[in-house]
Amino acid sequence: MSQEPARVLLFGAGSMLGWSIWQARPLDVTGFCNAATRRLPDGITRALDLDDEDAVRSLFAHLRPDLIINCAGVCDVETCETSPDFAWSVNVEGTRVLLEHTPPGTRIVHCSSDHVFGGDHGPYREDSPTAPISVYGRTRVAAETLVLARPGTVVVRAGLWIGPSATGRIGHLDWLRHRHRRGLPMTVVADEHRSAVWAEDAARRVWQIARSDVTGIRHVTATRAVSRPELAAYLVDRFDIGARFALESRAQRRTPHLGNVELATCHRDELATPLPSVIPR
Questions:
Q1: Distances from the Cα of 23 to the Cαs of 26, 27, 30, 225, in angstroms?
Q2: What is the pLDDT of residues 1-36, one digit of tens each?
Q3: Which of 75, 91, 161, 187 lies at 20 to 30 Å from 17 by C-alpha?
């Protein structure tokens, strides 16, 4: 393992992944949310958009972090489909700006997504060819390419993280709770299978990877893949949400939707050990 970083920055701390990583932090961390955030989550005191090059340049004129974890980005698939230029600006241009202005020698852990795969030929390992089917997925692939060209970086690909969010509205669990409280309809994709893990477990794994010397691509895997209907039913029952939901096929969705995107790994070390699936075997 490498030495403890003296200064750690977490970008995208208000995202589903970023919030879990922030809450699991084992070190002194400075968290950043995007500049449009109306109310910064507890403990987060800084706001910054990575595609604001002047702001990023100014930040690194004063800070020389040893470690950066980047969870910033627009992750809503429909938003990316309807606003592809916006998606590219945030997910790809923001990554380029971060890489360009980060001081040499700073370790970067970039959190990516299983959306880099199409979802019909899983399980997918780190060396499986990417085949995105959405604008969002294509921006993730483009950002990964930039990150992996820089020495000392690691891309962490995640599936579904199940846990609380900073806003109480994003992520599968809070989505179910929020829409049920408001009496809103819910539709779950019937033919989608993902690697679903508890956010707390996954966040700890990201910190383990960040504090190691590994580089390249790492998947956060689960002991099994689960379907969206199976997952929703389990969460509704376990957390006594009381929600009802309808089913829809991928073909019925307005935007491209993943199918079987179970994540696997080609690594055999401790950091590659599958995490417990949200739904036990």
A1: 9, 11, 12, 25
A2: 444 445 999 999 999 999 999 999 988 899 999 877
A3: 187
| pLDDT at residue 52 is higher than 90 | yes
Q: Is residue 239 part of a domain?
A: no
CA triple 111-117-118, angle to 5 deg:
145
Asked whether residue 3 is domain-assigned, the answer is no
Residue-range definition of the domain harbouring residue 210: 8-161+196-223+265-272
The first and second tokens of residue 257, run together, are 């939707």
Structural domains in the chain (count): 1
Query: Catalytic pick from 19, 88, 136, 207?
Result: 136
Residue with tokens 């950002």: 143
Amino acid letter for position 248: E
Which pair of tokens denotes residue 232? 């929703």
Which residues have CB under 8 Å from 5's CB, separation 6+? 27, 65, 66, 67, 107, 211
Query: Residue 136 catalytic?
Result: yes
H helix or E strand, kind and range, residue 244:
none
